[in-house]
Amino acid sequence: MALEMKVPSPGESITEVEIASWLVKDGDYVEKDQAIAEVDSDKATLELPAEASGIITLKAEEGDTVAVGDVVCIIDTDAKKPGGDDASDKKETSEKSDSKEDAPKKAEAKTQTPSKSSTPNQEQDKKTYATGSPSPAAKKILDEKGMSSKDVKGSGRDGRITKDDANNATPSMGTPGSGSRGSERKKLSMLRRKVAERLVSAKNETAMLTTFNEVDMTAIFELRNQYKEQFKEKHGVGLGFMSFFTLAVVRALELYPDVNSMIDGDYMITYDFKDISIAVSGPKGLMVPVIRNAENLSFRGVEDEVKRLAIRARDGQITVDEMTGGTFTISNGGVFGSMLSTPIINPPQSAILGMHNIVERAIVRDGGIVVAPVMYVALSYDHRIIDGRESVGFLVAIKEALESPEELLMDGNVKRALEL
Known about the structure:
The protein is built from eleven helices and 18 strands. By secondary structure, it is α+β, with helices and mostly antiparallel strands. The radius of gyration is 33 Å and the shape is extended.
């Protein structure tokens, strides 16, 4: 029986996918539920499992765009799995036959002896321990020039590098155009093309503006140093920076609800829930899984969810539903060493917070100069519905919460907030 495998729908509103890679070859025997291909939609990469066991015939090439419901392969379910006693006997017979045929050749090879004769030119080209070795005077000159003896051809006996060789040697400056000048043309994945399209759309269709501030991370450093081991031991997850930033964003969104809004034609939609998208780098590019109802989560709840989503994104298991519907985005370029950036809004959202690296800097505290761990933060927002007062006030609220986390994020009780 020939079973036609069709492209399943990865999610609502997705009408086509792209064959990113076949994990099997045409004519292979596949087992039921074995992953046979990776397919890209404009939102995620998904594995395509075999619907039955049998011999597979591929009907689409890697890179092909196919509509949902199209046939991409056929599985012959009546075909038997290759192998068994017959195959083993054939392999053993073949090996014995090869062995018999090789025996005369090996015997013939043993009777051949290499010729010991050599021409005068070959004797002259023979290398010795002195070949390429500089004399003491030559070595000193080469060291002064910063040159290696490998870059100099010796004219002395047996190829030794003489003083004159070293004096006449000049450092190589390279030759323009002498290196590799190859190039590679590679089609962007459907996910990467969609990300590019959305980023350009956000730049062209929103009145995007960015405001900046700096955060003294001393208080958070002290809390993490004091409680991170207890937190990990009890909850099985690390106490990272993302929980502090997520809860600081939730608090700021409560104070400035316009930032938790979206524009829809002539209307503004404001949400009473906080679904926080977190930008993570996956094997197929940038992905933004969503932490649902972050306003209901504790520090442990946020860290658990961040870890779960990051692992799923890294392993290519993230689903379309897990990446749609966010109301605000946090992007952490600091993990790659970024000092400052202007993050691009993730449409249809109206704002995005950019985190950056933490660097010890001199700051003024209580009238004196001290060294403190400082992070620059950036808020990009759609100026069509978010005014300067809201955007600046929102970022200041985040700064205040991060600099006084015990008071503003933990209600004065650290152990209860961390569930210790």
